[in-house]
Design goal:
2 copies of one chain form a homodimer. With 292 residues, the first copy, chain A, is of the alpha/beta class. Chain A contains 11 helices and 14 strands. In chain A, helix 1 crosses helix 3. The relative contact order of chain A is 0.13. At the A-B interface, helix 1 and helix 4 of A face helix 1 and helix 4 of B. Chain A binds a DNA duplex (30 and 30 nucleotides) through helix 3. Chains A, B: Belongs to the LysR transcriptional regulatory family.
DNA sequence: AGGAGATATAAATCTCATCTATGACCAATA
DNA sequence: TATTGGTCATAGATGAGATTTATATCTCCT
């Protein structure tokens, strides 16, 4: 059955308008073309589909049966095309991003707001998780892009470096005497240290750094969120290792201050992860462009 | 939007099989052809529909949305094609016949039985009515064919003469003395006559016939069905004017006998009516062939 | 390293959908 | 009754584009 589905479109319009000429107009064809197409369909099906009269065409019984099916089919295709246009124009669709809590809150939020304002039809799905989880989500196709702390080495992933983050140690008024001083790592370790929980990338980074200088950093307190790091430091429970940009408000208002060190803490980068060799959804592409 | 719906068929199979090569096989095309078609569809929609991998293709988010619509659409087309095949083969469909009660019962019944046995999937619709009603039904497209008593003159109708009917006068044992005799019309009119009701064709025919011989026939009793004509004659209420073929059983068993006349009653014909210049449904064509 | 599978690309081919031109038919006018 | 304006059908010419063949590229698996 090498049926050309194009014929059904012609049939649909002929039946709908009750006129081959009108169908031709609707399809931007000529009347003989439509006439020929209908004849072809009739030949292939082995049935007469229309009565031809001097003022148009009318469906036969059998044509009417066919129409009841084809009409639905055509409506679905029309809906599909509308949906596709909507997806293309970002009037519809969804954007699924994976990232850590803190990155969402402190880094992505303004972009997400901006994106949502510009494309209110696109649904946002934010998936929180650790870096390995994010990568798994990405590989399983459950998110369109991941936002994580660099570096990442994975052959399947496309990485785009974005924003630069600077980590630092901060304290509250309880340790006010340290303001303005420059501490060595050994001196710093005299004070109670508050770090993010063990499995985070920032934690791993700072642990390695201290080791490379011959020190071992053991936190007094371990917490599970950036907010708690900030809160604990403010209340004088210790010195927190945080990302400077994530506490800029506290630094400005003076509820926290940065501890100067005699070594330079290496900057970290935020990386935007996508699957290599896989096309981005239109929504994801739109978002990538926005944060460029 | 000069969208070739054929592309959706290709898309459907590519998505369904998850492989352009397999889709090509299913569609009796080559792989490059399918590859090209998909690319074209993607270009027209402005969206990427598939991820290409080394072991086939997989739908993108947007492709999956499209598929949800197209799948339904294609299924409907498949169903439509199956239905059309069934209609063509008379595994399905309906046959709508209009006719008089007596013609159905005495003339059409065996054909209808035969037709139903041969094409059990075709539904039969029998519409009873007078000749003018039948013609109206036909012109309104409510029946496929009409079975009526000839003659009919109507430019819009196609008439096919069929069976020949012979009308005659019959009586029961009450008038046994007439058996074997040959009566003139005048003699016949001495007896009470039972005729079919005024609007029937048979009634009009016999009235005209008597008039052409200078007589006027006025029935003692008028009835509305052939069955009553028979019953009344049997019970001796008068002499009924009936179609010989419709009372063959009674003539055989002797409960009625035919009255011989000195004039010949003209035979009537059964005509099969269809609309001129309008294609017959497959079912109707099948039936016409059967009763040839 | 090589083979077997997948898809992509390029250029040549040829089908067949479409067009123009015309005919035939019908209905409603003048 | 002839005319006009609408319908669909038919025939032949044409050209766009679908399809094919041949080849490249890539990935996975042995």
């Amino acid at each position: 059955m090498t049926n050309n589905y194009e014929l059904y479109k012609v049939f649909y319009w002929a039946a709908k308008t009750g006129s081959l000429s009108q169908a031709a107009k609707a399809l931007y064809l000529t009347q003989p073309s439509v006439s020929h197409a209908i004849k072809q369909l009739e030949d292939r099906l082995g049935l007469t589909l229309f009565y031809r009269t001097s003022k148009g065409v009318a469906l036969t019984q059998e044509g009417a049966v066919l129409y009841s099916y084809i009409e639905q089919s055509q409506i679905l295709i029309t809906l599909a095309e509308e949906k596709m246009t909507a997806l293309k124009n970002l009037d519809s669709g969804e954007l699924r991003i994976g990232g850590s809590d803190s990155l969402f809150k402190h880094y992505l939020l303004p972009y997400l707001e901006q994106f949502h304002e510009r494309y209110p039809g696109v649904k946002l799905h934010l998936n929180h998780g650790t870096t390995p989880e994010i990568i798994t989500f990405l590989k399983e196709g459950r998110i369109d892009l991941g936002v994580i702390r660099m570096p990442i080495v994975d052959a399947q992933l496309q990485v785009r470096e974005s924003f630069q983050l600077q980590d630092c140690f901060v304290a509250g008024s309880r340790y006010g005497e340290l303001k303005g001083k420059v501490l060595s790592l050994a001196e710093l370790l005299q004070y109670p240290i508050i770090l993010f929980s063990r499995n985070s990338r920032a934690r791993m980074g700072i642990t390695e750094l201290f080791q490379s200088y011959g020190h071992s950093i053991k936190p007094e307190i371990e917490v599970g969120s950036v907010d708690l790091l900030t809160e604990f430091a403010k209340r004088g429970l210790g010195i927190s290792y945080v990302t400077r940009q994530f506490v800029s408000k506290e630094l400005e208002e003076g509820s926290l201050f940065e501890i100067q060190l005699d070594v330079t803490l290496p900057p970290a980068h935020v990386g935007i992860l996508t699957m290599k060799n896989m096309p981005l959804s239109t929504a994801a592409r739109g978002f990538m462009e926005l944060i460029r």
